[in-house]
């Protein structure tokens, strides 16, 4: 490992009580390889170029655009090209590209994407044919959970809730990502909240994400206020002014989400639930409102918090996947703080 520059010598330790040679102290070299990460939503794409340990080299973000099968490959190609131009010299170079997709993924295949059409193409084959690096595709919520476990959390069992256009739960148990037999584990957004309720793209009616996702909150707020454009900052401003309609809307959203969290906690019994949502970051009081409703026997003592990694958790999860495959390990930890 020293020859591969995966570890470096940091000094000489003390000999034991029985004598003998003093041990050589070693430290993992997180700067020995490079990683490329992508978070691809239905209206944005974010890229992170980093060292193996997550330290950023360059990042790019393109927002307010419609992502679909006709432009996603070109966007990825452009961003990777930008990253390659600034790549520092390392022993192993770029060791992988991981794509986070908002949908069901099974063995690098995009199986189902409710809010864009990436399930109509073989994204893995197209990207693999362009670049000389290993390519991995995984569900966005799963990668968010892995990012939390690898880079921020001291817990071995956690659930990370990703709340965007939909709602997904990434599940880590004993340090390992749980994806299910067909990659569908954690699709909490498609659990039924209201039987015979609003039709969901998945084919069911009354799914949780049709009532408690960020997108639904924005749409309801826009209708309520007669606005054509809504973002997190606008809702936050109204909330800080204690606008009555906004307060009621926020209370409703947190109550409905608490039902989903209660259900997933009952199933998986995690040590902590971490929320990844732009609106919950902007209005942290929403986390406390969720906790108010978590008062049943199975959920009243569960820890709930906003992500320490903020909006980078998914990208860090991609970095973790690249690292796991490169090092051929199932568990990887770079940070013991939360």
From TrEMBL:
<dbReference type="Pfam" id="PF00480">
    <property type="entry name" value="ROK"/>
</dbReference>
<dbReference type="InterPro" id="IPR043129">
    <property type="entry name" value="ATPase_NBD"/>
</dbReference>
<protein>
    <recommendedName>
        <fullName>ROK family protein</fullName>
    </recommendedName>
</protein>
<dbReference type="InterPro" id="IPR000600">
    <property type="entry name" value="ROK"/>
</dbReference>
<comment type="similarity">
    <text>Belongs to the ROK (NagC/XylR) family.</text>
</comment>
<dbReference type="InterPro" id="IPR049874">
    <property type="entry name" value="ROK_cs"/>
</dbReference>
